[in-house]
Design goal:
The complex is a heterodimer of chains A (113) and B (112).
Chain A lengths: L2 E4 L4 E4 L4 E8 L5 E7 L6 E7 L4 E4 L2 E6 L4 E6 L8 E10 L3 E5 L3 E6 L1
Parallel strand pairs in A: 2-11
Antiparallel strand pairs in A: 1-3, 3-8, 4-5, 4-9, 6-7, 7-8, 9-10, 9-11
Chain B lengths: L3 E4 L2 E4 L5 E7 L5 E7 L6 E8 L2 E4 L6 E3 L9 E3 L8 E8 L7 E2 L3 E5 L1
Parallel strand pairs in B: 2-11
Antiparallel strand pairs in B: 1-3, 3-8, 4-5, 4-9, 5-6, 7-8, 9-10, 9-11
Classes of the chains: A mainly beta (113), B mainly beta (112).
């Protein structure tokens, strides 16, 4: 069966450390993979996109890797801050004739001062 | 400011009533989407529209209906046939190519 999995347990880290979130999938062949941030009671906000032929993408303190052999993406936030506390969603982008996104359940990140 | 608006933010209805959720965008995007989010589950696609006057069922369309009469508007009706309508509903739009989706602030619907 098709699955996309993110760690359902919250990740607690101290300010200044690097947070690493994992997204694993099975039986999908995504064209792209996206990461979104969602704050409580609000809509997701796009952060980064990585294509299947890209190994790594960076944007300021954010870094995403994409390993299509392992079927895994890692999302890193370096020098984390309390303001980074939120739920982070990964989404597979399937090229099915339209832009279909399949979302993981998200991982909640808590950064303590 | 460009963006997506959804209204209302909170909506309460009695069981058996139909209810329509509003979604408007001024990003000039061709594609629009409706998702449902439940605790412990990822966003699930209800309906999508790639162009005006055309829309398609997503993964969980039963009990829902939509229209796309204008490029900027994509309202969702939750009908009485939807068995578990209480949820957080999110509208999104995109250019329709393989790029990011822009989400609205969401509508939390509670049916009792």
């Amino acid at each position: 069966s098709q699955k996309i999995e993110q760690n359902s347990e919250a990740l607690n880290i101290q300010e200044g450390k690097t947070a690493t979130l994992t997204c694993n999938y099975t039986n999908y062949s995504p064209a792209y993979l996206q990461w979104y941030r969602q704050d409580p009671g609000r809509g997701p906000v796009f952060l980064l996109l990585i294509r299947e032929n890209e190994k790594e993408k960076r944007k300021e303190r954010l870094k995403v890797t994409f390993d299509t052999t392992l079927k895994q993406s890692l999302f890193h936030i370096t020098a984390s801050q309390p303001a980074d506390s939120a739920t982070y969603l990964c989404a597979l982008v399937l090229n099915t004739g339209f832009q279909k996104l399949v979302f993981g359940t998200g991982t909640r990140l808590l950064v303590s001062p | 400011d460009g963006g997506i608006t959804q209204s209302p933010k909170y909506l309460f209805r009695k069981e058996g009533q139909n209810v329509t959720l509003s979604c408007e965008q001024n990003l000039n995007h061709d594609a629009m989407y409706w998702y449902r989010q439940d605790p412990g589950q990822g966003l699930r696609l209800i309906y999508y529209s790639q162009i005006v006057n055309d829309f398609q069922k997503g993964d969980i369309a039963e009990g829902y209906s939509v229209s796309r009469e204008k490029k900027e508007s994509f309202p969702l009706t939750v009908t009485s046939a939807q068995k578990n309508p209480t949820a957080f509903y999110l509208c999104a739009s995109s250019t329709g190519r393989l790029d990011e989706q822009y989400f609205g602030p969401g509508t939390r619907l509670t049916v009792t």
